[in-house]
Write a structure and sequence with these properties.
Structural class: alpha/beta
Protein name: Acetate--CoA ligase
GO molecular function: 3-hydroxypropionyl-CoA synthetase activity; acetate-CoA ligase activity; AMP binding; ATP binding
Mean pLDDT: 95
Strand content: 15-25%
Domain AMP-binding enzyme C-terminal: 520-598
Domain Acetyl-coenzyme A synthetase N-terminal: 18-72
Bound molecules: ligand 6R9
Domain AMP-dependent synthetase/ligase: 79-459
Radius of gyration: 24 Å
Low-confidence stretches: none
Largest sheet: 8 strands, mixed
Strand order of the largest sheet: 12-11-8-6-7-14-15-23
Number of helices: 20
């Protein structure tokens, strides 16, 4: 942890500015957010910064009226940004498409009109299930414009996962595409939507973008082509209350049911615009590339909204970062002159595995700042990113945050002053984030000791609640340490005050940066007719972070066979989606349980990883451990 890389003096002189701003953000909440809350335009200014009278349901920028689509588009087209490029959209294969701020404004208005013509109203919920095409941000912005609450579902999720999100969000309109491209293959998205609708409570409208031009079924009076409903013109942006819901985004937790995280129209945009500015200090002429998917919070906040709020030019990439060749990412940086790159440790580790010759064959001199997100970055990957990609001239902005936090919570700040960087540390909290690390009893741990990271005070990017489940919001986030926001991660603060994030403290995995609840996969397994019980855990993987491993028992009358396992994997792929498919499924006759019948995942995982299983005094069936040991011996 002492491996410190002194940053260039030009950054360090400003470090005092960071501490000054940070102090002020905590001591003078009103003054600080009165000022920084104006990073967006308000139709009607807020008359109070924070209402904390109904803790932990914090409300920000009280009585302020605003609109996110207005802030991303209309205000820029009134000035010199009108003809600036908003997105350079790069397809998996073929030539890019460029859209200016005015072009995007026009297209968002046309789609917003189309939605209104279909009868969509303010407050309606809309599910967006789309590939990484320009119509995806257009759809999100059009919803925001008319005040419809959008719910983007990652296009890698299967029919059952989609159906559950359509139902839980109560969406009656779905926006999708005929298909999407993935590594040369076509994913038949509309077919998946059709199946999901059969499993759902029913929907009124399905809007389909023609993308892959594949054959699809169109249901009369329900399904419409995007091209047929758009209508040029101006749609007045709805005056949204700061605390009206803006979007729902589902994320995995420690139960089988994903949580619909609900973000607001006021606090969320204020937070993401400020944090992007503080952390990366983007300049007007910079080209920003956030290489994530819009189906995740990273894509919402830092592909779509924050860069548009700041009026930046972004690259948006449709495909996989190593397709058609392992140099795809470096080729895009060179071709489009990317200055600020934001990606994940899992991507860095994958590209690192292919070797240096790929980045070295491209001119990456446009790069100024490099960012990472999604999981802790291991020092080896950090060094490779810093030295091979950034040529030791670009600071690494390691941003620690979550779906629930809206935007960055702990991250170096290139604008307010960079600390000397330590590979693997996200360094210091963003202004407004009052973090601390606690032990099991809620006492502060000493420097260097591992504990749970919490945030003591609210900040504008904090979610409003869990959709339709205020109790779950309180139970999950504000109960373990009463009144403090519990992030679910382990952390250490070192002697210099730097934060080191050490991974999840719960049953949540990060598979290639994607957040997956082990219980969700278990539920998917036990819903199959052959499976009686299942235990799922993460196996550390040098590229993906975690891979999914499952142990399962079969119901009477079923025999284990390689075909059965393949068939189970196939069904998980269809129902839940490719990212949820366990890499290994082991069939055993019993799984270790407590006397009260709870599956002891931790014991299975320990045996599997050849570690000590810890306290097994509550174990009911010791023979099961022996069986797992034997199963593991066979695999290894
Ligand atoms: C943005 C995002 C959140 C969880 C979070 C933590 C992990 C994210 C990290 C990181 C260490 C970082 N995480 N960034 N851990 N260092 N820089 O990933 O949101 O999908 O909700 O996941 O990801 O475990 O709790 P989300």
């Amino acid at each position: 942890m002492k491996d410190t890389l002194p940053m260039d003096e030009k950054y360090k002189v400003h470090m005092s500015k960071y501490f000054e701003e940070y102090e002020r953000s905590l001591k003078d909440v009103n003054g600080f957010w009165n000022e920084n809350g104006r990073i967006i335009d308000w139709f009607k200014p807020f008359d109070k910064v924070l209402d904390d009278s109904k803790k932990p349901f914090y409300r920000w920028f009280i009585n302020g009226k605003t609109n996110l689509s207005y802030n991303c588009l209309d205000r820029h087209i009134q000035n010199e940004k009108r003809n600036k490029v908003a997105f350079i959209w790069v397809p998996e294969k073929g030539e890019e498409k460029v859209v200016t701020y005015f072009g995007l404004y026009r297209r968002v208005n046309a789609f917003a009109r189309g939605l209104l013509n279909l009868g969509v109203k303010k407050g309606d919920k809309i599910t967006i299930y789309m590939p990484m095409i320009l119509e995806a941000p257009i759809a999100m912005l059009a919803c925001a414009r008319i005040g419809a609450v959008f719910n983007v579902v990652f296009s890698g999720f299967g029919e059952q996962a989609l159906a559950e999100r359509i139902n839980n969000s109560n969406s009656k309109t779905i926006i999708t595409a005929d298909g999407g491209y993935r590594k040369g293959n076509i994913i038949q998205l509309k077919n998946i939507v059709d199946k999901a609708i059969d499993l759902s409570n029913g929907v009124d409208n399905v809007i389909v973008v023609k993308n892959t031009h594949t054959e699809i079924d169109m249901e009369p009076d329900r399904d419409y082509y995007y091209d047929d409903i758009i209508e040029d013109g101006y749609v007045e942006p709805e005056q949204m209350d700061s605390n009206d819901p803006l979007f729902i985004l589902y994320t995995s937790g420690t139960t089988g049911k994903p949580k619909g995280i609900l973000h607001a129209n006021g606090g969320y945009p204020v937070w993401i615009a400020n944090t992007l500015k503080w952390a990366f200090n983007p300049k007007d002429e910079d080209r920003w590339w956030c290489a994530a998917d819009i189906g995740w919070i990273t894509g919402h906040s830092y592909i779509v909204f924050a860069p548009l709020l700041l009026g930046l030019t972004s690259v948006m990439y449709e495909g996989a970062i190593d397709y058609p060749k392992p140099d795809r990412m470096w080729e895009i940086i060179e071709r489009y002159g990317v200055n600020l790159l934001y990606t994940s440790p899992t991507a860095i580790r994958l590209l690192m595995k292919y070797g240096e010759k790929y980045p070295l064959s491209h001119d990456l001199s446009s790069l100024k700042t490099l960012g990472t997100v999604g999981e802790p970055i291991n020092p080896a990957a950090w060094h490779w990113y810093y030295e091979v990609i950034g040529k030791s001239r670009c600071p690494i902005i390691d941003t620690y945050w979550q779906t629930e936090t809206g935007g960055f919570t702990i991250s170096p700040s290139a604008r307010l002053g960079l600390p000397d960087l330590k590979p693997g540390s996200a360094t210091f909290p963003m202004p407004g984030i009052d973090a601390e690390i606690l032990d099991e009893n809620g006492k502060n741990v000493k420097p260097g000791e591992k504990g749970y990271i919490v945030i003591k005070k609210p900040w504008p990017g904090l979610m409003l609640t869990v959709n339709n489940d205020d109790k779950r919001y309180i139970d999950t986030y504000f109960s373990k340490f009463k009144g403090k926001y519990f992030m679910g991660d382990y952390a250490i603060q070192d002697d210099d005050g730097y934060y080191w994030l050490l991974g999840r403290s719960d049953e949540v995995l990060k598979v290639s940066g994607h957040r997956i609840g082990t219980i969700e996969v278990e539920d998917g397994l036990v819903s199959m007719k052959e499976i009686a019980e299942a235990a799922v855990f993460g196996k550390p993987d040098t590229v993906k972070g975690d891979t999914i491993v499952a142990f399962a028992t079969l119901k009477d009358g079923y025999e284990k066979s390689p075909e059965l396992i393949e068939n189970i994997k196939k069904r998980i792929r269809n129902n839940l989606g490719p990212i949820m498919v366990p890499e290994e499924i082991h069939i055993v006759s019993t799984v270790p349980k407590t006397r009260s019948g709870k599956i002891m995942r931790r014991v299975i995982k320990a045996v599997y990883l050849d570690q000590l299983p810890g306290d097994i005094s509550t174990l009911e069936n010791e023979a099961s451990v022996e069986e797992i040991k034997r199963a593991v011996d066979i695999i290894k």
